[in-house]
Amino acid sequence: MAALVHALDLLIIAAALASAGLWWAASRNRVRRISHLEVLDAADINRLVVALNRTQLLSARAALATACAALLGALRLLINALALG
Q1: Model-level pTM?
Q2: CA distances from 56 to 36, 63, 65, 71 (A)
Q3: Is 35 left (phi over 0), alpha (psi -120 to 50) or beta?
Q4: In Å, how far are 5, 35, 51 from 63, measured between CA atoms?
Q5: Residue 63 buriedness (CB in 10 A; 0-12 / 13-18 / 19+)
Q6: 10 alpha carbon, distance to own chain's centre
């Protein structure tokens, strides 16, 4: 039982670190600002769409890693409660 608890603790830490890394990667991509005098062309719009899509994918992966960490934490608490009860 102790080995299972330790394994869950390590999985929780790994999922939390993965989540933090993915959120950081999603937040570091900046789209350059443009002047109101500039004319937007297809390449500019394409860069915006690509940046938004990449950020959305990283955010979705980070949310999944966060959900995994939360589920593993809940499982850890459940196992601890069953062992004490």
Answers
A1: 0.76
A2: 26, 10, 14, 22
A3: beta
A4: 24, 34, 18
A5: middle
A6: 18
Residue 39: what pLDDT?
86
Residue owning tokens 């500019």: 44
pLDDT tens digits, one per residue of 21-58: 999 988 887 777 777 888 888 988 898 899 889 999 99
Kindly report the number of other CB atoms within 10 A of residue 23's CB atom. 17
**Cβ-Cβ contacts under 8 Å for 61 (sequence gap 6 or more):** 22
